[in-house]
């Protein structure tokens, strides 16, 4: 790749500045809406969310990167209300984040084995997110 003189002299050329320690959007209460809506409506309300439930502030470099792992088991309405509230809550804090919904499957005879698998999935999801954010930097 070609680079300009400014890029080689200043390694942060073109880079975003860090987000404020206390973001301006934290002022006031966050309105809680317990209405159940479909996932398409939630997507329309949060157009900056990338595929896979990931978000990164556009105007600054986030000071924190967060992976949120949500254990899920047959509670569709609760998940929709939760996601509708969680996205604005995290975006106000100018966090770079990913939300991972992990479907829990329980078998009575293999309960301990299933818990171990779920913990393994949680760990691998967090490691993958951390590796992905490192590769971008």
Descriptive terms for the model:
137 residues; alpha+beta; three-stranded mixed beta sheet; 3 strands; 40% helix; disordered N terminus
- The end-to-end distance, rounded to whole angstroms, is 17 Å
What is the tally of helical segments? 4
* Shape verdict: globular
Poorly predicted runs: 1-11
Question: What's the arrangement of strands in the largest beta sheet?
Answer: 1-3-2
Kindly state the number of beta strands. 3
Estimate the helix proportion, in percent. 40-55%
Bin the strand percentage. Answer: 5-15%
Task: Specify Rg, calculated over alpha carbons.
Answer: 19 Å
H/E series, N to C? HHEEHEH
User: What class would the helix/strand composition place it in?
Assistant: alpha+beta
> What profile does the largest beta sheet have?
3 strands, mixed
Mean of pLDDT: 79
Could you explain how this protein is built, in words?
The protein has 137 residues and is α+β, with helices and mostly antiparallel strands. It has a domain at 52-137. Helices cover 40% and strands 13% of the residues. It has four helices and three strands, in the order ααββαβα. It has a three-stranded mixed sheet with strand order 1-3-2, sandwiched between helices. Residues 1-11 have low confidence and may be disordered.
Topology:
Elements (H helix, E strand, L loop, with lengths): L4 H5 L29 H7 L8 E2 L9 E8 L3 H17 L3 E8 L7 H26 L1
Parallel strand pairs: 2-3
Antiparallel strand pairs: 1-3
């Amino acid at each position: 790749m070609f680079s300009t003189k400014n890029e080689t002299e200043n390694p942060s050329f073109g880079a975003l500045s860090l987000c404020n320690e206390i973001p301006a959007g934290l002022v006031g209460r966050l309105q809680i809406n317990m209405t159940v809506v479909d996932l398409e409506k939630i997507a329309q309300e949060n157009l900056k969310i990338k595929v896979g439930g990931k978000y990164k502030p556009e105007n600054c470099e986030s000071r924190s990167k967060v992976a949120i792992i949500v254990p899920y088991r047959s509670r569709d309405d609760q998940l929709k209300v939760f996601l509708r509230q969680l996205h604005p809550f995290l975006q106000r804090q100018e966090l770079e984040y990913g939300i991972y919904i992990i479907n829990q499957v329980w078998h009575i005879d293999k309960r301990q084995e299933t818990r171990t698998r779920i913990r393994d999935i949680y760990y691998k999801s967090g490691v993958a997110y951390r590796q992905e954010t490192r590769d971008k930097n």
